[in-house]
Amino acid sequence: MKTSKKRLVRRLPATLLAVALVAAACGGEDEPEAAPPPPPAEPAPAPEPAPAPAEEGCDGLTEVTVQLQWFTQSQFAGYYAAKDQGLYEDLCLDVTILEGGVEIVPIPVLDSGGADFAVSWVPRGLVPREEGANVVNIAQIFERSATLQVSWADSGIEGVEDLEGKTVGNWGFGNEFELLAGLRRNGIDPDSDVTLVQQNFDMSALLNREIDAAQAMIYNEYAQVLEAVNPDTGELFQPEDLVVINWNDVGTAMLQDAIWADADLLESDAAYRDTAVRFVQGTLAGWIWCRDQADACVDVVLDNAPTLGRSHQTWQLNEINALIWPSTNGIGVMDDTLWDQTVDVAVTEGILSAEPEGEAYRTDIALEAIANLEAEGLDAGGSGWSRATVVLNEGGE
Amino acid sequence: MASSSTSRRQRARRSLIFAVFLVALALLYTGYKAVGQAIDDTQRDWWVVGSFLPRSDDKNMPPVLDILAEFGKAPREGGTTIGKLTFDGALFTLREAAVGFGAGTIIGLAIAVVLLQSRRAERGVLPYVIASQTVPLIAIAPIVVVWGRTNFGFLPWEWEDWMSVSLIATYLTFFPVAVNGLRGLQSPSPEATELMQSYAAGRRQVLRRLQLPASLPFLFPAFRIAATASVVGAIVGEISAGVRGGLGRLILDFAGKYITGPERLYVAVIGACITGLVAVGAVALAERLVLARRGELAR
Question: Which residues of chain B carry a pLDDT beneath 70?
Answer without folding.
Answer: 1-6, 43-53, 295-299
